[in-house]
């Protein structure tokens, strides 16, 4: 059976495709729509993989099955079908991310005296479900669960005085009231992209609401992306991962604008923080997708190898 060579070729070509697609890094000039287009391209890559797997399955159906290979070919068909189902789930989640943005720049600061603007609650819910779906698919495929962080804004390891004031970049319908871009940068620097993503997916959809009281360790990234008064959000009990997640989401999702002090220099610093947080989140999502694709296709390739050499089935 020659399906083995076809499957092996598809395996390596798709890994190359995914590696080439997963290269987005946003800058101050990147629009939120650009990020959506990136996910559209990625979804098309997943769709291509599904088509290639279907073609391989078709070859196994049409081949003359020799008795000693028949069982192994059946296992290959099962592996291909399972891979297709996994990719379909992954694609549905990725497709949801295509239209979450708008024409504004990633990390953009509000134009009305640097006032912050909440990210769209409806779009935040879509993003939450999409990211949670991507991570759930990954864990189902065998990727390790994400590791979170319990670092609070009151901890000295963040490295600046009064780091909680950095959360003021998430003020809603108000500016930050002081120059806080450097403190926001310290918060984002204190956590990894994996910790930011973990904080987001451990939220719940109903948390896409305004912060109406003092922020705590239970306040989620979705709430921070909507924001609140500077008095409510700038609290030492809040988690750095949650604040960073809120900054990333507001920087990427439709309608969202960060808050800065009413001067040009802080505006530049704050947008840079938004870009940094967004990149950390995007890279973490990329890593999850890349590892999922790799594990799923490796399992198919193992069955391909067995179908080409039945002796491997016993190893």
Automatic annotation (TrEMBL):
Statement: the UniProt record of this protein carries the keyword Flavoprotein: no
Membrane topology annotation: Lipid-anchor
Ranges in coiled-coil conformation: 69-100
Places the protein is found: Cell outer membrane
GO cellular component, one term: cell outer membrane
InterPro entries on file: Borrelia_lipo
Keywords tagged on the record: Cell outer membrane, Coiled coil, Lipoprotein, Membrane, Palmitate, Plasmid, Signal
Pfam family, one: Lipoprotein_2
Tree of life domain: Bacteria
SUPFAM superfamilies: Variable surface antigen VlsE
Summary of the function given for this chain in its UniProt record: The Vlp and Vsp proteins are antigenically distinct proteins, only one vlp or vsp gene is transcriptionally active at any one time. Switching between these genes is a mechanism of host immune response evasion.
UniProt-recorded name of the protein: Variable large protein
């Amino acid at each position: 059976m020659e399906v083995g060579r076809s499957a092996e070729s598809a395996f390596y070509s798709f890994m190359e495709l995914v590696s080439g697609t997963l290269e987005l890094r946003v800058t101050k000039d990147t629009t939120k729509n650009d990020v959506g287009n990136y996910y559209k391209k990625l979804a098309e890559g997943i769709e291509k993989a599904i088509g290639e797997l279907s073609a391989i399955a078709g070859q196994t159906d049409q081949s003359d099955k020799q008795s000693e290979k028949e069982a192994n070919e059946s296992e290959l068909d099962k592996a291909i079908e399972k891979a297709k189902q996994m990719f379909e789930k992954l694609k549905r989640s990725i497709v949801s991310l295509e239209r979450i943005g708008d024409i504004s720049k990633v990390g953009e600061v509000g134009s009305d005296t640097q006032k912050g603007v909440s990210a769209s609650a409806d779009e935040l819910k879509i993003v939450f479900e999409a990211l949670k779906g991507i991570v759930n698919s990954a864990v189902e495929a065998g990727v390790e669960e994400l590791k979170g962080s319990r670092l609070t804004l009151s901890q000295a390891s963040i490295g600046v005085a009064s780091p909680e004031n950095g959360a003021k970049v998430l003020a809603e319908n108000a500016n930050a009231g002081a120059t806080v871009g450097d403190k926001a940068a310290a918060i984002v620097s204190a956590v990894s992209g994996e910790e930011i993503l973990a904080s987001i997916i451990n939220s719940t959809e109903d948390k896409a609401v305004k912060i109406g009281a003092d922020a705590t360790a239970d306040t989620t990234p979705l709430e921070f992306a909507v924001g609140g008064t500077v008095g409510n959000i700038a609290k030492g009990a809040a988690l750095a991962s949650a604040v960073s997640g809120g900054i990333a989401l507001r920087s990427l999702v439709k309608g969202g604008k960060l808050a800065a002090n009413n001067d040009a220099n802080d505006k530049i610093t704050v947008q840079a923080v938004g870009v940094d947080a967004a990149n950390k989140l995007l890279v973490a999502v990329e890593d999850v997708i890349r590892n999922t694709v790799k594990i799923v296709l490796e399992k198919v390739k193992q069955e391909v190898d067995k179908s080409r050499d039945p002796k491997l089935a016993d190893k």
